[in-house]
Amino acid sequence: MAGAYTWYPSEDYLQNANVARFARKCGAASMAELRRKSVEDISWYWDAVIQDLGIPFASPYSQVVDLSKGIQFPEWFVGGTINLAAATVGRWACDPATADNIALKHEDETGKTRFITYRELNLEIEHVAAGLRTFGIGKGDVVALFLPMIPEAVTAFYASARIGAIVAPLFSGFAPGAIAARIQDGGAKAVIVADGTIRRGRKVA
């Protein structure tokens, strides 16, 4: 294709990639060997992945995968529970070594950028989660998000996850009837919404 670019990683890049480091840690001499081992023993492989990534389970799993109902009905990480917000934001926000790293970069259509650290994002998540609890929203409740592509959409999503709520994303381009139907059909107890946004240089209510 005319104008196309092809990138070839250097040998140094390949040797220092996370997957290469992981393969060496697992005693695999090559990517092909790592793949073979992952297919032969999926429980060993995915347990090793979880441990290597340090993904924090609130309640530990007793079994990596249960195939007793057939391979088409696997139950993963049996008995384990995990909180998305804690695993992907909170863990870095609580670590002094990573708390001030950039968690989120937002650029609007004018080119204006915002940078939000893990510490800042986690604090905003806690504020919104507290607000949701004030309205009686809790575990298993549905929270609909009717938001443009702004950092607050990320905050609202993680805040809902923090309290164990179910997120129902609503596309901002839907007509009012479609929005109403999805809110009603989903049984949403709350809707987080912005009063407007900027699209193609124009304010849209």
Task: Report on this structure.
Helices cover 41% and strands 20% of the residues. The protein has helices spanning 11-15, 18-25, 31-40, 42-53, 84-93, 118-134, 151-162, 176-186; strands spanning 63-66, 75-78, 102-107, 113-117, 142-146, 166-169, 188-193, 197-199, 202-204. The strands form 4 sheets. It has a 3-stranded parallel β-sheet with strand order 6-5-7, with helices on both faces. The chain has a two-stranded antiparallel sheet with strand order 1-2. The protein has a two-stranded antiparallel sheet with strand order 3-4. β5, α7 and β6 (166-169) form a beta-alpha-beta unit. The chain is built from 8 helices and 9 strands. It is α/β, with parallel strands linked by helices and 205 residues long.
Instruction: Kindly provide the radius of gyration, computed on alpha-carbon positions and rounded to a whole number of angstroms.
Output: 21 Å
Structural category is: alpha/beta
What's the number of helices?
8
- Straight-line N-to-C gap: 41 Å
The rough form would be described as globular
Oligomeric state of the chains in view: single chain
The amount of beta strand, in percent, is 15-25%
* Main beta-sheet annotation: 3 strands, parallel
Compute the number of strand runs: 9
Strand order of the largest sheet: 6-5-7
Question: Would you tell me the overall average pLDDT?
Answer: 93
Low-confidence stretches: none
Helix content: 40-55%
Please write the string of helix (H) and strand (E) elements. Answer: HHHHEEHEEHEHEHEEE
